[in-house]
Amino acid sequence: MSLKIGIVGLPNVGKSTLFNALTKSSKAAVSNYPFCTIDPNVGIITVPDKRLNKLAEIVKPEKVTPTAIEFVDIAGLVKGANKGEGLGNQFLSHIREVDLVLQVVRFFEDKNITHVHEKIDPFHDIEVVNLELVLADLNTIKNAIAKLEPKINSGEKELQEKYDLLKKIEKELEVGKLINQLNLNEEEKDLIKEFCLLTAKPFLYVANLSENQLPKDGKLNKDGVDFIPISAQTETELNSLPQKDQEEYIKTLGLKESGLNQVIHESYETLQLITFFTTTGGKEVRAWTIQKGTKAPQAAGTVHTDFEKGFIKAEVISYDDYISAGSEARAREKGLMRTEGKEYVVQDGDVILFKVNK
Questions:
Q1: What is the DSSP pairing of strand 100-106 with strand 4-8?
Q2: From residue 11, how far is each of 76, 87, 88, 129, 355 by CA, in Å?
Q3: Residue 159 bridge partners (DSSP)
Q4: CB–CB of 173/209 below 8 Å?
Q5: How far apart are CA 351 and CA 287, in angstroms?
C-alpha cells in the first residue's frame, strides 16, 4: 500500500529541516523567513527493519527491497489560512491528500531563527494550526449540509443518516474539537470519507528540540500530550556520518534509536500497519506494508493485483520460526511452515509464499 505522511506546522519550526533529515536530502529550502516552502517537497524513504536484513543474510538474494513511506513537506500554516491567508488554500489542499498529519512543534530556543509569534509557546502553536484545520473542516461541512438540505425530504435513509452525522460533527467543530477526537464508528467514517476532512486524519506531534533538551528515555509528555522528541538539527548531523558512527553517536546521546526511526515506528502504530515478507524463490527478499487485520488474499493483492483474485493458499512461516530454523527448507522439515486459507489474518513478521491460479 502507498503511505503518505504530511509534515505540517507554523513557519520556522523546523519542518523542512526534519523533512531533509528524514529523506536524507536537501530538497526542502531551509531559510529564516515564513513561506520558505511554497510547493510541497516530496521524498520517499525506506522503512528501516532489522528483520529484513536478517532474512537477507539467510537467503542471500539478488535483491533486497524494503517497504517505503512518502513524506510531504507542506508549507507553514498561519492564522487565517482557512480563509486563504498566507498561502492557506494551497496548504490545506496538500494536507487533504495525506494519510497522517505529522505536526512539528518548536521547543528549541534560537535568537537567529525568528518565531512567527515572536515567542516559544508550543501549545499556542498547536492551537493556531489545529484551529485553522478545524475552521477549514467547518467550512466544508457547512457547504455539504447546505447541498443536502434540499434533498433531505426525499425519504432516502442514507441521505438522512449523512445529514444527521454532518450536523453532529458541525456542533463539535464549532467548539474547536478535532474530528479524530470523536468516537465515530466505521460506518460513520465511511459516510464522511468523500469530504476528505483534515481533522479526521490521525495526528502525531513532533517536538523539535535542541540536542540538550532530548529526553534520555525517548519519551516526552507535556500536559497530557504525547510528543515524539526529535532534534531535527542533530538528525541532520547524524545523516552526515557512516552508519556505524551514527549508532555510536546515538548511544553517546543516551538514546535507544534515532528520532527519525521513532517517527516511522509511531506512524506505523498510529495507522495500525504491519509488515510481512516474501522471499521469491531466493531471488528477492521484500517487505510489504498492510493494514493490521488484512486477510491472506488481500495481502497477496499487494504483491500483485491478480494474486487476490487467483488466491489458492498461503504457506506461512513466522519470522521467529524462520530465523530459528535457519532457512525455508529447514522450516518445512521441522513442520514450522503452515498452510493457511482465505480467512487467515496475516500477522506482523510473517514470511509468506502465495499459491495462486495464474
A1: parallel
A2: 4, 12, 12, 11, 51
A3: none
A4: no
A5: 9
- Cβ-based neighbours of 32, under 8 Å, separated by 6 or more: 12, 112, 113, 114
pLDDT digits (tens, 9 = 90+) for 166-203: 999 999 999 999 999 999 999 999 999 999 999 999 99
Beta-carbon count within 10 A of 290 CB? 19
HEC string of 55-96 equals HHHHHCCCEEECCEEEEEECCCCCCCHHHCCCCHHHHHHHHH
β-pairing, 4-8 vs 220-222, is unpaired
The whole-angstrom separation of Cα 86 and Cα 77 is 8
Query: Which residue is it, cell 496475516?
Result: 346
Grid coordinates representing 338 are 503452515
Residue with cell 518565531: 115
Ramachandran quadrant class, 118 (left: phi over 0; alpha: psi -120 to 50; beta: rest): left
Cα–Cα distance between 356 and 313 in angstroms, integer? 7
Residues in the chain: 358
Distance separating alpha carbons of residues 176 and 89, to the nearest angstrom: 20
Residue 257 near residue 250, CB atoms below 8 Å: yes
C-alpha 31: how far from chain center: 26
pLDDT digits (tens, 9 = 90+) for 269-302: 999 999 999 998 889 999 999 999 999 999 999 9
Which of helix, strand or coil describes residue 173?
Answer: helix
Whole-model pTM above 0.70?
Answer: yes
Tell me the C-alpha distance between 177 and 57, whole Å: 49
For cell 509468506, name the residue: 352
| Residue 15 to residue 202: CA distance in whole angstroms | 18
The H-or-E segment that residue 314 falls in is strand 311-317
> Within a 13 Å sphere around the CA of 117, how many CA atoms are in the beta-carbon half?
20
